[in-house]
Every structure is written in structure tokens, then in C-alpha cells.
């Protein structure tokens, strides 16, 4: 119990004292996961929309793969990204392994199926005849897609929260492709694991609390936007 109390006290101490290392770790966590989420939104919403609006052979197989990808183990993603960018790997010449860029790529791969699956479900929940009705009223295909996205904006915001939550709390792939290098590729989750291994439970709890506060603030902002947009 004393360890938990000390951890909470240390967390607020680090926050109020604006510890440079903790601030850098927190900022890197937010930057890496934010960019990865943005990439996953661009790819995931695009793919989800295309799959929901088109009919083609093998569509059910693609949807099954998307749904399977929503539960993709982060360590598996980390392993394949690591192999891909390994010195002797296909993309080893880029030399981005053990850098924040490699972490962004791994996290984007993790988040994209989540965003795609939720986006697909959101678009499929709209009335089946709605696209045809919009086109009948004289809208172009791009305008029709934009209107559909606006109609599905509430579950799409849930996709943002799910995608961000899935990567900001991820640790396995981040350690594998980022290396947890101090001052360069160390994020809140990897730092927490490291401090726990060292037996610094008070610092590990402090970092965990900071991570929880970060996740809460981001999701609180998105929830406020979502609830504001909710039809009354």
C-alpha cells in the first residue's frame, strides 16, 4: 500500500516539478501514438469506406481479415516490422530500426485494422439505400462519400479513441522496434516496464499514472466532441 501512495506522490511531484526527462518521454509517447493514429485514420477510414460501398469477389474474406486484424498481437507486429527493417532485411537500407519512426510504423500497423473495422461497421450501419438517394439528388460520388462520413461521424470518433487507446498503451512492439533508448525512443510504457524490472516501483507507478492521465485527457476531449455532435 505504501508503494502505491509513494508512486502517486512521485507522479504529482514529477508533474508539478516539470521533470525534463519525464516531459520528454510523455511528449514522445503522445507524438508517436498521435502520428500513428493519424496514419491509421487515413488508411482505415478509406479502406473501411471502400469495402462498405463496393461489391467484389472475396469481399467476405477481406472483411474477415479486417476483423481478425483488430485483435492482432502487438508482439507479432513488432517482430515482422523488426525483420522488415533489420540490417539484412528488405528495408534495412533505410536504417530506421530502433528509432521513433519504426515505432510509428509498428503502431500504425496495430491501429489500422482497429480503425478499419470500426469504420466498416459504422458505414454498414447506415441505411442501405442512403448512397443511392444522395446520388439521385445530384451529388457527385465524392460528395456522397463525404455526406456518408458525416452521418457516421459519431462511431468514427469512437474509432479514433479505440485506435489511439490501442497504441498509446502498447509496449511489446515499441520495445522491439524502438529499443527503449534513453532520450531517443523511450516512451511511457517502455519506461514503466524498465523501472518495474529495476524494482523502482514508485517511479513505475508514477509513470503509469501519468500515462493514465494522458489517455484520459485525450479521450475526454474526443468524448466531449462526440457528445456535442450527438443528435438531440
Largest sheet, in brief, is:
none
Give the class from helix and strand content and strand pairing.
Answer: mainly alpha
Shape: globular
Helix-residue proportion: over 70%
CATH topology: MetI-like fold
Distance, first to last CA: 45 Å
> What's the CATH C level?
Mainly Alpha
What is the second-level CATH architecture? Orthogonal Bundle
Q: What Rg do the Cα atoms give?
A: 20 Å
What portion of residues belong to β-strands?
Answer: under 5%
How confident is the prediction overall: mean pLDDT?
86
Order of helices and strands: HHHHHHHHHHH
How many H/I helical runs? 11
CATH superfamily: MetI-like
Tally of separate domains:
1
DSSP E strands, number = 0
Low-confidence stretches: none
Output the keywords.
232 residues, 11 helices, MetI-like fold
Give the gist of this structure.
This protein has 232 residues and is an all-alpha fold. It has 11 helices and no strands. It has helices at 2-16, 20-53, 59-69, 74-85, 100-124, 130-136, 141-151, 153-168, 172-178, 188-198, 201-229.
Structure notes:
By secondary structure, the chain is mostly helical. The chain has a single domain (2-226), classed as MetI-like (MetI-like fold), CATH 1.10.3720. The chain has helices spanning 2-16, 20-53, 59-69, 74-85, 100-124, 130-136, 141-151, 153-168, 172-178, 188-198, 201-229. The longest helix is centred in the N-terminal third of the chain and has 34 residues, at 20-53. The mean pLDDT is 86.
